[in-house]
Amino acid sequence: MARVIAVCSSTVKGVPKDVIPEGVIKEGYGMVGDAHADCNTHRQVSLLAVESINKMRSRGYKVKPGDFAENLTTEGIDLTTLPIGTRTAVGKEVILEISQIGKDCHTGCAIFRQVGKCIMPKEGVFGKVIRGGTVHAGDEITRLPSDGE
Question: Out of 3.40.50.720, 2.30.38.10, 2.60.60.30, 2.40.33.20, which CATH number does the structure's domain 3-143 have?
Fold first, then answer.
């Protein structure tokens, strides 16, 4: 089963996010209270697999959920293989549409300074919020069928 293992937020950009008990995700905007939320972007919510974080741990880096500034740390779903436009249900309310895989990373961010390497450029995934709601650690993530399926 694919699931959320951590919900993360920060009021400042360019720093690791704090793990929080729950997040409110607003349609067409992102996570309420998070510095990256914005209705004028297709990168409203960021996701990173714990499997990616564990690869960094196996190389000796002391990293944890939120350290790469992701909003949702996931488990059991290969995010980077989801085609752009794929919709996923997160928990009972939220629907995200995958809008970008990877990103340009700037070397001045706190994550790069702390770790010396960032996995978000290749393994981070971004989504637009199609339907908002509340998310918690443990919420199931389900790939929704596309119109052609």
Answer: 2.40.33.20
Q: What DSSP letter does each residue of 4-65 carry, written as one string?
A: EEEEEE-SSTTSPPEEESEEEEETTTEETT-TT--TT-S--EEEEEHHHHHHHHHTT----T
Between vectors from CA 110 to CA 2 and to CA 43, what angle results, nearest 5°? Answer: 45
Contact (Cβ atoms closer than 8 angstroms) between residue 88 and residue 140: no
Q: Where are the domains of the chain?
A: 3-143
Residue of 149, 147, 130, 148 whose CA lies nearest to 29: 130
pLDDT in tens, the chain (149 residues): 999 999 999 999 878 899 999 999 999 999 999 999 998 889 999 999 999 999 888 888 888 999 888 999 999 999 989 999 999 999 999 999 999 988 666 555 566 666 666 666 678 899 999 999 999 999 999 999 876 55
